[in-house]
Specification:
The protein has eleven helices and eleven strands. The protein has a seven-stranded mixed sheet with strand order 1-2-3-4-5-6-7. The longest helix has 25 residues. Pfam families: Lactamase_B. This is MBL fold metallo-hydrolase.
């Protein structure tokens, strides 16, 4: 797909490939009726002021409005202007971002900080172009920088792993293409140095007059971060917690730790922010992040129970055989490519969480 700015209204987004949805739960209601209406209509939501001096705008990802990324713009004292997750850029164009900034009386050249929640191209993709135009530093967690630097080696190891999962022959090529060497993280969208500022847990973003604290929330990727704006009661969650989509885990660089364990801990880490307004990377702003985080954690626990039951019932099964007994929405029989690879990879994480990865037969 090619990138396409906001065009004519598109059909309302249909259910995504089922594995990405938590399913069977009620989703939090939107804070912003404008964003919810735009999402329902398949249109990009307009620029909206969230708090005085803090705006959101949407940038389409590979032309797909349902996949639009919510970009946040935060102004500070002395002309400071931070962009959180500049979104996707195809070939370095910044048209949508430029138009959004124009509507708030600013320009791309005014940007003084580019803060990125994680390395995926729909968040980081426009960062290099924005840095070139503005001179602003890119700020990211060091685990994301490590993942970008080691993307090739990680992809090769992923490919070796995926070949042991017992994927049926007719679907193996698709899995390898999406999960192995063909896998795209943020590479190709940002050139070295990938980051100019490294963000650790508890750090403050350098925005004079603002207080945005880094909260390290690994799981979706190893260096995913959220930003906590205590004075304004805002929590910028990237893809850690979205209102309707279960954004998946272990989708960044390879990590020593189990991304499932990490994600469960990082969901618990949101407990202090029950009263905050959530500014996610996609869909719409919402409240009650604690309920949403608990729903996601419960969903993951349920998956773990299914994996345990499959391991009990089968004698040294392959990863694919276990996953066939886990009720991924739609079932893995209907999945291919990236979704299938992600479901199988998650199955391994669940088995590992149970301390039972050794029972899996590597094909
Ligand atoms: Zn995303």
């Amino acid at each position: 797909m090619s990138a396409r700015p906001a065009g004519p209204p598109r059909p309302a987004p249909q259910a995504r490939p089922a594995a990405q949805y938590a399913g069977r739960v009620s989703n939090p209601s939107p804070v912003s009726p404008v964003q919810a209406a735009a999402l329902a209509a398949g249109a990009l939501p307009p620029v909206e002021e969230v708090r005085p001096g803090i705006w959101t705008l949407a940038v389409p990802f590979r032309g797909g409005v349902p996949d639009a990324t919510l970009v946040y713009v935060v102004d500070g004292d002395d002309g400071a202007l931070a962009v959180i997750d500049p979104g996707w850029s195809d070939g370095g164009e910044l048209d949508v971002l430029t138009e959004g900034l124009r509507q708030i009386g600013r320009t791309v050249e005014d940007v003084t900080l580019i803060a990125v929640t994680h390395l995926h191209a729909d968040h980081l993709g426009a960062a290099a172009a924005l840095r070139r135009r503005s001179g602003a530093p890119i700020a990211m967690h060091p685990a994301e920088v490590h993942a970008l630097e080691h993307a090739r080696a990680d992809a090769e190891q992923n490919e070796r792993d995926a070949r042991t999962w017992g994927v049926p022959d007719d679907r193996l090529d698709g899995v390898l293409a999406a999960w192995g060497s063909g896998r795209q993280l943020g590479q190709g969208t940002v050139e070295a140095p990938f980051a100019d500022l490294l963000l650790g847990d508890g750090d403050r973003l350098p925005i004079p007059g603002r207080d945005l604290r880094v909260l390290w929330t690994p799981g979706h990727t190893g260096g995913h971060v959220c930003f906590v704006d205590e004075p304004d009661g805002l929590l910028f969650t990237g893809d850690h917690v979205l209102p309707r989509i279960n954004s998946g885990i272990g989708l960044g660089g390879r990590t020593e730790s189990n991304p499932l364990r990490d994600s469960l801990d990082a969901l618990t880490a949101l407990e202090p922010f029950a009263d905050f307004e959530v500014c996610p990377g996609h869909e719409y702003r919402f409240r009650d992040v604690v309920t949403r985080a608990r729903t996601l954690a419960a969903h993951r626990d349920e998956r773990t129970r299914h994996v345990a039951a499959a391991l009990d019932a089968l004698d040294h099964p392959t990863v694919f055989e276990v996953a066939s007994r886990v009720p991924f929405s739609g079932g893995i029989e209907s999945m291919s490519g990236y979704l299938l690879a992600s479901a199988l990879s998650q199955t391994v994480f669940h088995a590992d969480l149970l301390g039972r990865a050794g029972e899996l037969r590597r094909a």
